[in-house]
Amino acid sequence: MGTTTPPRTLAEALRARGDESLAGLLRARPDLLNPVPNDITQLATRAGTRASVVRALEHLDRFALQTAEALAVAPDPAPYATLLSLLTGDGLDDGEQRDDAGAAITAALPGALATLREQALVWGEDDRLRLVRTARELLAPSPQHPSPTGLGPTVAEATAGMSPGRLQEILAEGGLPATHDPVSAVAALSSLFTDRTRMAELLDTAPVEALSVLDRLVWGPPYGEVTPNPTPPVKWLRDRGLLLPVSTRTVVLPREAALHLRAGRAHRVPEPVPPVVAAAATRDPQAVDRAAAGQAFTALSTVEELLKLWNGGGPAILRAGGLSVRELKRAANSLDVTEPIAAFWIELAYGAGLLASDGEPEERYAPTPASDEWLDLSAEDRWTHLATAWLAATRTPGLVGGQDAKGRALSALGPELDRSAAPDVRRRVLALFAELPPGTAPEAETLLRRLRWERPLRGGAAPSPSTEGTDLRSRLALWTLNEAELLGITGRGALSAQARALLDEGPDAAAARLAPLVPEPLDHVLLQADLTAVAPGPLERPLAETLSVLADVESKGGATVYRFTPGSVRRALDAGQAATDLHAFLAAHSRTPVPQPLSYLIDDVARRHGHLRIGSASAYVRCDDEAVLNEILADRRSTGLRLRRLAPTVLASQADPGSLLEALRDMGYAPAAESAEGDVLITRAGARRTPPRTPPVPVPEGPPTPDDTLLGAAVRAIRAGDTAATVIRKDTSEDPSSTTPSGSLPRTTSAETLATVQAAAMTGSAVWIGYVNADGAASQRVIAPVRVEGGFVTAYDHTADEVRTYPLHRITGVAELAEDGKG
Fold first, then answer.
1. For the chain, give me the number of helices (H) and strands (E)?
2. Averaged over 323-349, what is the pLDDT?
């Protein structure tokens, strides 16, 4: 696609590119594909729109952006040497350090320029480099939007509208010959400011205070306010054109003068080389892996505890969505963590599809059916499931407790926590970890500096106003560091081997790395005489579930301590277990003999369990032992229950059965609830589940990156449309001298259209058609016909990347495609 004629427009520059280069542009800027442009001209127009240019600028690294900023203040077009000079300076103030910086800039500039060209932000040959107009407007200086370089307008721009008499006064003060031509006067003043020798002589005569004023303006902002009677130093600068009026109270340092004072540099500190991520500490890689594995196991235990906490139905959902502050505090207390960390675990379980809304009229959060499947997985597979969900999630727990743009509090599981940049930041942070040797913990500040260099505009300093603050990307990075340590991605501040495998090879490889480091579940506990049981490690799921009903967790750590109490034993009996079942369970799963106090406790609670029966009258108490009922009636604590005797063995109450049951238990009895038929009701540990739910879908950051198939089809469609729009085709009419105007839809007869699409369906080739839809809108499309019948053609539409059916009577005409790579 090469050409010997220099391109005159961006469209011509794009037309001269090869297919691979066009595909690279569409891959770097996928927003240009929605929808697929009809031709190169439309592609160039779309690439120059403000929204698209801002998005492209936001994805530039620091030096590529500095290169674009230098082009924005350079002449248009600018030779390569001028651009290089703006980045390195004119060399007159160079020392050894400046020489090193200049060499680095010289080496890095071709790569930065190639990036800008690939993204269609710069076009033209090296002797005529042009920044696209929209980017120049975004990056060029103005009083309302100062240039990122800190440079002001040129002399010509600043003196536009200035009276010829005032120009003559400035020329006289600067020792320049008078001229009555304003253009010549501006040129003479510009020439003075760009002449190193004459400018040095002029500044040698300046008062010291005037030089101080210039020092304050030289690196920006270049604008300053003056009074109607300025001080002598300011008057001296203004009389010689070193400060030019913008309004009655504002002056500006012209660009040419500022560049002289800067030694020709557009930026105070060019940054051609990315900052190095320094090491904060180096540790034994095996110790890092073990620490990360230990934290991964803690993460699994915490999520399991959360699911168990909400197993019977979790907290209610706020009307505006999310979790209330009180419920978050309650969860934090139950998990024995701080509220921000509790918010992280809740959001992680939600993002992994383990928690969701139950969808009932009074909505509550509850575990999903997928949580049961997750609990059945091995520890390493459960961890990879959580880690994979965390990497892809756009929900950001670090925002919980903050405020949205309207000042409303952001709650856990609320609707305003998605930040589309989060997955990209997480993966980039971990990629920087992975670039360090195993066992190396990076220094957080240098890591943040590297991220800011890679995406300087993504933190909120974009040309358009930001709605998120000044450094979202840095906050996301800091949250990533904390969350990665909590989840076991990192251990002791360094990336673990299992996390490296997850990033490079996938979940299966990560699970294989983690498996040897995770303890095997145990099938036994150690019973002790003080009514406790010690689990020296993780327990098998059935054992853990039964033991959690029979005993209360007293402490956690490397070993878990369970305590047996009358209440916990009664809980097991309420769940349908008999005393003999409990004795057999403990004997089968204890490596130590069952202590006698524990056996006595079980028998004593079982003997009294169910002696009292609670049913619904509104509520009643039934007991075969009249003495027990007499004791209850005589107890002052039962006054609030408003009990009265209906029969020697029955008491009635105005309280509901549940309240009566709890009140008598608080009084030290062990009543059991019974059904209307008189059978004991078994209250097993509740397991409330939501209907099947899919995990929350991450909010994408702009259009997704297209795959190679779509890119190839899009490039072919654009080439075909461009050929149709720029090449004059012979009309198929009988008049050989007639032609089809350039850019119009193809026109063929119905018979020719039918014959051509049938032939294309038989050969499997693609054709270019003109199509008018039911609303009368005309479009150009590239289709590969599959079937032609019944007045319709079914084809794969390369432009829309899907199979569609078109009525033949709406096809205006058909034309053959140019060969791939031509046009």
1. 33, 27
2. 94
